[in-house]
Amino acid sequence: MFHLAKGLYASWNRKEQYSVLILGLDNAGKTTFLETLKKESALSSRPLDKIAPTVGQNVATLPLASHPGVLLKVWDVGGQEALRAMWSEYYAQCHGIVFVVDSTDRARMDECRETLTSVVTDDEAEGVPILMLANKQDRPDRMEIEDIKEIFNQIAAHLGARDSRVLPVSSLTGEGVLDAIEWLVVRLERNKANRPPQYK
Ligand SMILES: Nc1nc2c(ncn2[C@@H]2O[C@H](COP(=O)(O)OP(=O)(O)OP(=O)(O)O)[C@@H](O)[C@H]2O)c(=O)[nH]1
Ligand SMILES: [Mg+2]
User: Fold this and answer.
1) Nearest C-alpha to atom 8 of ligand 1 is from which residue?
2) How far apart are CA 178 and CA 184, in angstroms?
3) Which residues of this UniProt protein bind GTP (predicted)?
4) Residue at 8 is within a domain
5) What is the pLDDT of residues 10-33, one digit of tens each?
């Protein structure tokens, strides 16, 4: 009887775990985004002014106050050019991709577009929801969100029927970060039949 009750309790409390991959050029703000997300989720996090360029990977498993039955396992990998070849190793296992863009880095928008195109056209990432974050919106020298959306829309042709969106955020101030995650979680759940979560 005890074992039955324990088993039922465990299955009632099972959580759906989705893996989210954070990509983007070096200096885009990926690690800052992850650390802010950890702080918002009441996990211990690094001071934002102590973050160095990522060489390996950072990973955190986050509970979501707005979705008690969901855990997000978030993978942040280095964006330096030499490290981008590693990204595809993660595609097959991920449920969603967040592509972070430095909204002030006009000089690298072409590189950013080409990099995102190579991500969304990779067969291993087929069908996963893609959220593009126009980061560093707190900076006065940022590009307008509409201009960034236009760049993204040129890539949308490759996306087929999958969910995608461009949202403005500041990983540094936290503005827009939880709204962005909320958008993503709804799409991860919607895409569950194609990419089932792990049950924890
Ligand atoms: N003003 C402002 N600065 C930001 C924001 N997000 C990140 N930064 C700064 O941008 C720089 C790079 O941030 P990281 O989070 O290390 O960037 P990354 O994408 O992880 O870089 P790699 O690990 O090299 O791929 C740091 O100086 C951050 O403080 C933001 O929203 N606003
Ligand atoms: Mg980093």
Assistant:
1) 29
2) 10
3) 24-31, 79, 135-138
4) no
5) 667 799 999 999 999 999 999 999
